[in-house]
Amino acid sequence: MSKTRLTGERWVASDEKRALDILLASSLIPAAAPIGGLALAASRMMDGSNPLVYQQRIGRGLEPFLIRKIRSMEPIEPSREIHRTDSELTKLGRLIRPLAIDEIPQLYNMIEGSMSMFGPRAYPQETMDGMEAHLPRDIYEEWLYVYMTSRPGGLSSYNIRARAVIDLENTAKLKALLDIADFNNASLSYDTKLLRSAALMGLSVIKNKLKQSI
Hints:
Helix content: 55-70%
Strand order of the largest sheet: 1-2
Mean pLDDT: 87
Distance between the termini: 52 Å
Largest sheet: 2 strands, antiparallel
Radius of gyration: 17 Å
Strand content: 5-15%
Low-confidence stretches: none
Order of helices and strands: HHEEHHEHHEHHH
Number of helices: 9
């Protein structure tokens, strides 16, 4: 069956999508690794702590896994890791987070199979509990099925919108509805559109940063 005919859950669960994840992540690593390496070195020099952090997230089938990130916030006790605000960003973090440079190590999660290039954001258990507490039951059950069936992703409609609009209201319902829409519309062409939107957003962020520096 042609990849272009696989949609929704069939595409999300397909070997073709898994192959695409490996292809994209493997292709991006040669270009992204030097940038990530510079960010890791800068983090070590500027903050003095371990620049590569591992955080537990809930993955497909509600199984926990460790996500890799470049440190962008001040070191704290692990028990406070979820309750962070932008005021705790390091100087380097303010530079690399808008461009998702701190998420470059997640390309290795994608190759391993704990993450996908496209899918719901990887949430900690506390966020999962919050979704259950704040969503209407019917929306929560539909969203939970989407989350359980999908590998957490680096790109989603919510991620792109959150980076595009600084004052975006961070509600459980918005996250859930966008994740459900991504799942229902998932296909090779839809993921390609998400990738293009993310690239355009990245260029927009870079353009704005350059304007601010002039």
